[in-house]
Amino acid sequence: MSAKNVVTTLKKNTMLVVLVLVYLFFVITTGGSIFKPMNFNALITQNAYVYILACGMLMCMLTGGNIDLSCGSFVCLLGAIGGVLMTVKGMSATVGILSMLAVGILYGCGLGYLVAYVNVPPWIATLAGYLAFRGLGTSILSNNSTTGSIPYPEAFVKFFSGRVFGTKPNGPMNMVCMIAGIAAAVIVVIAIFWTRQTRLNKGYAADSFTAALAKSILGAAVIVLFMYKLANNGGIPTVLIWVVAVVLIYSFITSKTVVGRHFYVVGGNMEAARMSGVNTRRIMFLAYLNMAVLTVVSAWTVMARFQASNSTAGTNYEMDAISACVVGGVSASGGAGTIMGMVIGATLIGVINLGMSLMNIDANYQKVVKGVVLLGAVAFDILSKKRES
Amino acid sequence: MAKILLEMKNITKTFPGVKALDNVNLQVEEGEIHALVGENGAGKSTLMNVLSGIYPHGTYEGDIIYNGQVCKFSNIKDSEKLGIVIIHQELALVPEMTIGENMYLGNERGKKFAIDWNTTYSEADKYLKMVGLTESSKVQVKTIGTGKQQLVEIAKALAKNAKLLILDEPTSSLNEEDSRALLDLMLGFKKQGMTMIIITHKLNEVAYVADKITVIRDGTTIETLENHGPEPISEERIIKGMVGREMTNRFPIRQGVKIGEVNMEVEHWTVHHPLYPERKVVDDVSINVRKGEVVGIYGLMGAGRTELAMSIFGQSYGVNCTGTLKIDGKEVKLKKSEADAIRHKIAYVTEDRKGNGLVLSQSIKVNTSLANLDSLAKLGVIDQDREYAVAEEYKDKLRTKTPSVEQLVGNLSGGNQQKVLLAKWMFAEPDIMILDEPTRGIDVGAKYEIYCIINDLAAAGKSVIMISSELPEVLGMSDRIYIMNAAKIVGEMPAKEATQENIMAAILKSGRGE
Amino acid sequence: MKSISIGDFFKKYTMILALVVVAIFFSITTKGKILYPQNINNLISQNGYVFVLAAGMLCCILTGGNIDLSVGSVVCFTGGLGAVMMERGANMWITVLVMLAVGLLIGAFQGFWIAWVKVPPFIATLAGMYAFRGFSNVVLQGFTVAVRNEQFLKVFGGGADCYLPDLLGGGGLNRTCLLVGVVIAVLYALMTLRRVSVQRKMGIAHSVTGEIAQTAIICVVVIWLSYKLASHKGIPTVLIWIALVLLIYNYITQRTSIGRHLYAVGGNEKATRLSGVNTRFVYFFAYANIGLLAGLAGILNLARMTNAQPTYGQGYEMDAIASCFIGGASAYGGTGKISGVIIGATLMGLINQGMSIMGMDANYQSVVKGIVLLVAVMFDVLSKKQKR
What we know:
heterotrimer; A: 389 residues; mainly alpha; 2 domains; 16 helices; 2 strands; C: 388 residues; ABC transporter involved in vitamin B12 uptake, BtuC; 17 helices; globular
């Protein structure tokens, strides 16, 4: 690989490079404590909701830079509904989960209908939800003030938090976790080479052998390291399974399916998509229905993590999800952006949050840094693209 | 010899990696109409952008000498101060604002912090009269038609005290009647001593108005022709300069013409305007097309051609659509959905490539497969290898010039974009293809290739309807011609019998209400 | 003269009618309490910030539906800065200047990124929203800082004595206030008269009946308002500031080049650029301007609360945005007026006030606000659809 290739590769993956640099920065400034197993676990559990919500937000943004401002407040409302049902009303975890899902689908359909069929600008439609849901959630909780004193059903908590085949955090290495990590790494390596080979066989452009090798070594190393760290901290966090599942599913939908392609096309040129027989209204509808459903999923994980419903849950979640997308290169005007980019964006924000709290930086300065990073990342992205073209 | 008003000497302009202009020279005399012609991408617009200061001094080499002085413009305002005003191809008007506000946008009357609206509107009215508009300047721009908007643009230029007026494709979105009125207006201004530069693709217009014609090809000036004689200069002569060779045959000859039975019939088709439901935009139209036949629909812009085509295509335009549509002799009732029309093997290739034809931010591959993506998918999962292969196949078939099918469509030239659009609809495997102005805004060479594709489609047994407002094209390509005017079909004739004269006669006859 | 059908009339004055309906609704449910002079006074003084911020937000929205999410945090930050400065004994006027300058600087900073680097406004101001909330905490060190500068409170309408003094005296009814009301009404009527006559002279056609009716209604409302205010201590000081801001911004948007350029950029950015307008400067202006107004809102807010807390200003951006949309600004830019913003902001204020008088739970208040916003926009979208 020549020097020029290296430069173009780096340019293509600016955010990845930034992520690595930021991580190294925190490794140094925290005296390595960000590298401790415990903090790998924290990175996942504290940011799970960002990954899940950002998948939904990405789909909305693809359709033309549309966003959903209501998801944070909706997490609060869902928490209140689910929490009250499972504690005060004493219902089972299944009923709680299903009724939250039902509320989510109901809202998603209503919102999707308004956006797709009544043409209400999405961010106004969701701004209304932003204002209303937190109020509703809070009043439900204050009318059922005993909610906080009754624990959730054990099954619920177990299903969305804790660890899979967990062992003691500081005990011996969790073998299940380690084996899963190695298996995942092997699968990734095989997938990279298999794709390359099929492309070569059919005569399409493909990565050079060195590039593929570098990619697979890096990918495998990161996965194994990550899982090794987790294995030393009691095993795979349950929520990681959820995050990986959601990310994989949406990565598949956006890159391989007809519906996913339609999201990009609608965002690229709504009229052209319609004239080509794409049901554009249905795509808009799906984007918001989908967002509501993913909000339910993230509400489950958040509730289980805090093991409580409270009226401040979900504050600013919409901003986190949007930031993750935008930092990850999702176009603010629609039609461009990938799940992998978003994952890098979300991880970058997560690393910064974690690193700063480990450095004991004042929470206020953390907000400042968050803002600066957001602005800087986007400006950097825009400027580097400008120079290219 | 009259005074030279403008001289552009040895202009060279480089974009990263491309030399857009290479030693271009242009001389314009005071009081003449100077036409600038050349194929797309030849550098005409770039040259005018250099002149008007959009590309500021320092970003190009060479000199601009205006009125005997070397000029160094750093923005549009500088050139406007000297009376050089450019009217861009895409109308530079704000639809929500009034005509008066638009005319003085960036050039407000009164003081900067106290606009004098009364002066604005009364002065605006004065200039509107000069271009022959009777509208009040307090009317919103969005409420008047495109033809009148173009006149507003001219009034706006006059309000800036234009001495040298540059018109970039001023008639590209006008119908024949409005175009002629505009050209006559230009001739009127010439009499009053104004100097004008016109950029256009329409060579008949060049012959009509221009005193001198400068041909640009590949970023260099080829020649400057005089157009003073009693006979206007021949279009062939201009084309020779533009493409660098004689174009003896502008239309390819159809081979193996085999016209089959009637494939699609439209009977008593009536469509109403979506905003003004009482207005008929298509009025009791009946047409049919046979397998392997190219049917031309000739009509001016606004005659209802596009509306007819779009309403057949899943009612994508208009309201209260009535009439019957028969395919292979059987009546079909299309739902109000484009997807339904595609299922019935109808394709509509739009005239508005960038507006509702292509997704410019996506690759050739994505655009090619878009209308028939389901055929490449199993259970909703796209077979990306096949998609790639399909895109490659059409790229080769239509000879689209591109390094790869992963290239973004927005980076292609107009002719190549049109090929991608055609590829999309060919891949949708329709039986009936409605082509709406398939050669608009693309250069002569690319036009020929598009005509070849149309002939191939017909030879493959497709029914082709070609809508066009260019008479030679309709005459040269069709087997049968419908003439449309004011929402109605006013004539039908086999191509053999059709001539420019009897087509125009049919339109005039209907216009008189006979 | 063109006759206007009833349908058109409803469409044109939707939001005014909505305002009237909401006012009637609350006067029934609160048994007329909402129309008590005291409550009308409160409505103005408690919602001053909405009017000021909405005027700035309108300028941003005009450029193409762009918004500024940072205003809430900037209000908090400038307020905190001012409180701390005055506590350390800074002169009040210097403090005010510093607060305005800081607001302007923040706005200019964000405007720079938006206009020249082309960072989407949403992102740039989102960053500001995070950052200045943090800075507010830093400045105040997490505490509440009280304002003891009496003069400051007096000038900007805070504390117990937040009314203009009654110069004419006169017991129960504040005569100054009444007089001011009448004078404004008369002035307004005279100005309309002059405008109509000039336009007639220049031969620009106009419907006179509509003009007279509109003027009459506005005059009646002004006099009624001044009567109500006069019955309770007189003119709230903050009203002067609101009126000043609204008048200035009405002038800017209608009568200055930069104001018209805001509309033009939102209507067709490319066309505007090709007309020789520096569109980047227009964006920059919109955001620098809202920064300045956020500084002013910070001052007013600081005076009204008589202290600064790191949590102040939360959700202010939403109030301002909602006011603009309720007032008929287009979510896609290019249309919207200050007069609309006044109606929108008043409606938001009325709802706030009405619900708190009814003793409604604060949580439900935000629910109602959300629904009102949604209904307003839906109505707008649907009525425009019908027209098309």
